[in-house]
Amino acid sequence: MLSKIPTNLPPHLSLKFIKIYSSSGDLWRARQLFDKIPEPDLRSCTVLISAYTKHGFPKEAIQLYEELRKQNIPLDKLVLLSVVKACATSADVNKAKEIHEDAIRFGFHSDLLLGNALIDMFGKCRFSEGARRVFDNLWVKDVISWTSIASCYINCGRPREALRLLREMGLNGVRPNSVTLSSILPACSELKDLSSGRELHGFVVRNGLEENVYVSSALVNMYASCLSIKQAQLVFDSMSQRDIVSWNAIVTAHFSNGECEKALSLFNRMKTEGVRLNYASWNAVIGGCMQNGRTKQALEILCQMQDSGFKPNQITITSVLPACTNLESLRGGREIHGYIFRHWIYEDITATTALVLMYAKCGVLELARRVFKMIPKRDTVAWNTMIVANSMHGNGDEALSLFYKMLNSGTKPNSTTFTGVLSGCSHSRLVDEGLSVFHSMSRDHFIEPDAQHYSCMVDVLSRAGRLEEAYRFIQEMPIEPTAGAWGALLGACRVYKNVDLGRIAANRLFEIEPDNPGNYVLLSNILVTAKLWGEASGTRKMMRERGITKLPGCSWVEVRNKVHTFVVGDKSNDQSNEIYRFLDELGEKMRLAGYKPNTEFVLQDVDQEEKEDNLCNHSEKLAVAFGLLHLSGKSSVRVFKNLRICGDCHNAIKYMAKIVGVEIIVRDSLRFHHFRDGFCSCQDFW
Ligand code: ZN
Ligand code: ZN
Fold first, then answer.
1. Of 20, 363, 490, 624, which one's alpha carbon is 20 to 30 angstroms from that of 285?
2. Beta sheet of 672-676, edge-to-edge order
């Protein structure tokens, strides 16, 4: 039975009823009654503000406080304490600053109880300067003040400060308690500072705090983060009671150490010992399996998770998806997508964005696009992901048009947005567009271009063949040109056969990154093309003398759920004979269609016939051939290569795609190439 709200009560009775309603959570009635009081006093306001906060309505609590402030009556400590708690829950830093000013104005700047609450509030708002000001103003500081300020620094991503404070605390004669230790130990985890962690462990033992389950959980976590798995296990084993946090920490520890069997057996022990698993437990195991390449097991556990009544949440999905960025796990990613689709968690922008990224990285741009379209309210990260995805795949126009759509939608671009758009412009030779976007950065969006943006611009100009302009651009840069900028110029010098600038760029690169074999190989390629054989062999000699070896080229292709690896001249595959025979036959057809092997790309002093033979051996050709041999239906062939695709292979694969009539997708170290009907999406610029 709902009781009627009493009317015309004397003030002390009103307050009594407000208290009764508030404590039972009936805030609506409490408010009704409150509104009937002609001149509500500080006491009833405080009761209602506390009730709002306690029952999860911090915004309403703050609103009521604002109304109270307008009355210009002196505020007391209790009402301030209640609103500080509300503000800590809502983590609104601007309100927090106002409330702090109020506290000072009404003379509570050095009150210990209120001060501690203010520090905690600023900590939750991640505003360490505010917390520090309150802390410094306190005449007396107790263990709670010290613990709160240290936690605040940890919250604000300044773990070193927290550790420094702990030492200062000791010097001030305040003894840390179990709360202090369990809050500060995560600082050691974050910094991977094993020696500070050990010091704290010593303190724990000396003060008999190891029985505290929060402290020992934090210790397990600390040792695990510092990759001291043995120690973590020792602490874990010595615990008389274990909470879920410590179980999860030890399981995660074994996974991050690559010990999947141990981790999984601990997980099974959790189940048999009747530990109540939480989201973090499931996510730790699924994420751990994915990190260690155990996609199948991860998906099995994902099913178990659902069977146990846990819906995979955002963390589950985002911990699984980033791992699905190679061929082996694309299937796993698809199943997760199926899950997202069936359970309609498209509203979860983080999960959906991770899905877009996964598809883009696996080269399935069409699916990335489709998922992106499903996101109802796109944020900067979502837009950036789609822009970068298009750039990666050489769709500069689409990257650019997405950028303008993003601006029109009122979403603010950030530094990553511009890197994405500019690299899209470079891959699609959109020079004027690139320049205009670049100039708009600081002028319209107040973002100063950084080294990456400058490198992108060098790339934009270089790829378009405007090498002199690119060189001038580098010379006029206000910041030191990085390897990225010179590398872009050098790469273009190979395409445009510009020996002079190639030499300049390469020599700068030999100084900046002397150990990168790619630069020597590129310069040597440029010189060979210009028939400067002597100088070319000089470059290769320099590379050898400096002890730099060229990374062996390696390509992967997935056929019937198995990934096959090829290196140059590979004969280790069971079907090697078939592959070479197939390449021979295909080669005939390609030659008839007009393909001429480009022997510039064989840097060996051998005769013409042998050079051509060497070209057929390249890992990407072998992988593509293997993929084509096992083609089923109308699917496309997807090959990944660890280095840049070579010029002859690039040309040859265009012919292959046309003759066989399928799409061949090659992801090399720089970008995706979609070969279709005799053309590549990169328009021969890469
Ligand atoms: Zn090749
Ligand atoms: Zn291409």
1. 363
2. 562-567, 554-559, 637-641, 664-667, 672-676, 679-680
Q: What is the DSSP letter of 600?
A: G
Which ligand has the shortest distance to the CA of 428?
A: 2
Look at residue 88 in the predicted model and tell me its pLDDT.
92
Task: Tell me the one-letter amino acid at 471.
Answer: Y
Give the ligand with the smallest distance to the CA of 684: 2
CB atoms within 10 A of CB 502: 25
Burial class (CB in 10 A: 0-12, 13-18, 19+), 237: exposed
Ligand at shortest distance from the CA of 647: 1
End-to-end CA distance of the chain: 75
Nearest-CA neighbor of 80 among 67, 65, 91, 95? 65
In the chain, the amino acid numbered 431 is V
Give the model confidence (pLDDT) of 167-203 as tens digits. 899 888 898 999 999 999 999 988 889 999 999 999 8
Mean pLDDT for 423-450 is: 92
Q: What distance in angstroms lies between residue 421's CA and the mean position of ligand 1's atoms?
A: 30
Question: pLDDT-based confidence at 225, cuts 50/70/90?
Answer: confident
Alpha carbon of 679 to ligand 2 centroid (Å): 8
Name which of 567, 554, 517, 574 is nearest 640 in CA terms.
554
Nearest to 143 by CA among 117, 187, 184, 176: 176
Pick the ligand that lies closest to the CA of residue 668. Answer: 2
Give the SS3 label for residue 357.
helix
Consecutive H or E run containing 557: strand 554-559
Cα–Cα distance measured from residue 474 to residue 458, given in angstroms and rounded to the nearest whole number: 7
- Give residue 503 CA to ligand 1 midpoint distance, Å: 24
- CA of residue 605 to ligand 2 center, whole Å: 28
CATH 1.25.40.10 assigned to domain 450-545? The reply is yes
Name the residue among 425, 506, 415, 494 with its Cα closest to residue 461.
Answer: 425
Residues of the chain with CATH 1.25.40.10: 41-175, 450-545
Q: Which of 266, 234, 272, 238 is nearest to 252 (CA)?
A: 266
The listed range with the strongest mean pLDDT (347-351, 375-379, 433-437, 663-667) is 433-437
Backbone angles phi, psi at 551, to 5 degrees: -65, 135
Report strand pairing: 672-676 vs 554-559. Answer: unpaired
| CA 588 to centroid of ligand 1, rounded, Å | 17
Question: Closest Cα to residue 551, out of 528, 526, 530, 520?
Answer: 520
Beta-bridge mates of residue 672: 667
The CA distance from 555 to 563, in Å, is 10
Give the number of the ligand closest to the Cα of residue 682.
2
Joined tokens for residue 330: 């694309």
Question: Rounded mean pLDDT of the chain?
Answer: 86
In this structure, what token pair is assigned to residue 310? 């846990």
Q: Using H for helix, E for strand and C for coil, what is the string for 501-543?
A: HHHHHHHHHHHHCCCCHHHHHHHHHHHHHCCCHHHHHHHHHHH
- CB distance 316 to 286 below 8 Å: yes
Neighbours of ion ligand 2 (CB under 5 A): 673, 680, 682
pLDDT tens figures, 348-365: 777 788 778 877 877 778
Q: Please report which ligand is nearest the Cα atom of 675.
A: 2
Please give the CATH topology (third level) of the domain spanning 41-175: 1.25.40
Give the CA radius of gyration of the chain: 32
Alpha carbon distances (Å) from 386 to 359, 372, 398, 399: 10, 7, 10, 8
Residue 186, beta-bridge partner list: none
How far, in Å, is the centroid of ligand 1 from the Cα of 5?
84
Whether the CB-CB separation of 551 and 642 falls below 8 Å is answered with yes
> Which amino acid is located at 599 in the chain?
T
